[in-house]
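Data card: per-record layout.
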Amino acid sequence: MNMIQNIKKRTLLTFVMPLALLICGPADAKGKTSAAKEAVNETAQSIEQTLDLRNQVIRKGNLHAGSVTFSEGSALLSDEAQEKLREVYNSAMAAGKIDDIQVSVWSDSNLPNSSKIELSKNEKELATRRGNEIKKFLEETVKTPSVQTFSMAEHANWIARLFNTDSAELKSSLARRSDKTSEAKFYFLRDGGPSTAMIVIESNKRN
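The structure for this 207-residue chain is written out next.
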């Protein structure tokens, strides 16, 4: 078991052990002690599984998606972010031929709902830099096909414009797009927030 796993386990036991003892009562007998330990192990495993699920690549049909997080004010891709980008790409590659790679990128703030209210120049530039870093990493380091990025700091971005539309309007707008973006892809792309980026890769089975 590596250091990170040890730390995670110790942290989980710190929170879970008092709960187990509360349920099982004082450990004044071997039976109660054993029951407490079993409760600790089962609860810890359940929590670890939940944490692992949050970090998995999300798959829906031929779409593979994941999110990465940036430090406030930074466009630097952490080792963890780079690993997540690789995981999403490898998942899509294993499923078939890569058709499309799209990335939606946020600054450190949400874009105001009103098209009349803009984010600051610094926020817009931050989102652009983050998108460029992801594009550069994927295309030059991972060697992926061309990557399309969308800044979620500007209303000019079509995803941002449709962000709060109702289902009927969304379907109509997507149907008019030449790239035939699916609802599922749209919902993945908008499923981020401040200081994050969403990567969505579409792949189809090889003939």
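Known properties of this structure: Residues 47 and 118 are 41 Å apart (CA to CA). The radius of gyration is 22 Å.

See the next section for split statistics.
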